[in-house]
Amino acid sequence: MKRIPSAVMAVVALAVMIGCAGANRAPALQPVRLPPRIDLKQHEMIGVMQFSSPSGSRLGPLATRRFTESIRRDQGLVRIVDVRPETGAARSSAPSRPDQETFKALGLKNGVNTIMTGELKVSSVRPNVQVSALMRSGQVTAQVDATLEVQMIETATGASIWSRSGSATRSVGQVSVFGGKDFSFDADDPDRAYGDLVDFLVEQVARDFHATWERR
C-alpha cells in the first residue's frame, strides 16, 4: 500500500477543519432600516408655528424652516401647514406657549390636529474680539450657547404629546454689539452666519422623526 506523506495529511485535515468552521459560522448580520419612532401621518394635518427666538434675530424663522425640512425627511408625503396666530391673545403670549383655548382655535381655523411650537434660546454671548466699553457698535463673531426646545401639541386638548430639546455651543457671525454689552443677531445671509448652529440643534431635536439602521 502506498503511504500518504504526513504533510499531505496535515493539509487535508486543515481543509476539513476550515470547512467545518465555515459551516458552523453564523450568517453575516445585515443592515435593517427601522421606521421613525414617531409616524407623523398619525398626527395629520400638522401645523408649524414659527419658533420664537432672541429679539431682533432671524434665528427663529431659520430654525423653523430647517426643523420642518428635517422632520419630513424620512416621513414620505406629510401634510404640514404654517400656522400664524392672528388673535391678540396669541400674539401677546409669545414667546410663551399659547394657552389651551388658543390651540383649539388655531386647530379649528387651520384644520390641523397637532401644532409644533418651538423656542430658540441664546445665552452667554462671548465676542471673539476685545470689545471696549467705549465701543458704541460693531460687527463681530461670537461664541454662543444655544438651546432649542420643541413641542408637539394636540389641538383638541392643548396637551403636549411630544417634546425634546437640544443644546450646542458654536461660533456665529455678524453679531451686532451695542455699548459693549448688548448683543443682537442679524445677517443678510442667516444660513451662512449661523446655519451650522441651527442645523446641529435641529438634528438633536428631530431624531424621533428619522429612520434608523441596525444590524440583524
H/E topology pattern: HEEHEHHEEEEHE
Write down the overall geometry: flat
Bin the strand percentage: 25-35%
Rg over alpha carbons: 28 Å
Q: Number of helix segments?
A: 5
Mean pLDDT: 79
Largest β-sheet summary: 6 strands, mixed
The chain-level structural class is alpha/beta
Q: Distance between termini?
A: 53 Å
Low-pLDDT stretches: 88-95, 132-137
Q: What is the tally of beta strands?
A: 8
Can you put this structure into words, describing what you see?
Helix 2 (59-72) packs across helix 5. The chain has helices spanning 6-24, 59-72, 88-93, 100-110, 190-205, and strands at 31-34, 46-49, 80-83, 114-127, 137-154, 159-178, 182-185, 212-215. Residues 88-95 and 132-137 have low confidence and may be disordered. The chain has five helices and eight strands. The strands form two sheets. Strands 3-2-4-5-6-7 form a six-stranded mixed sheet. Strands 1-8 form a two-stranded antiparallel sheet. The chain has 216 residues and is α/β, with parallel strands linked by helices. 25% of the residues are buried.
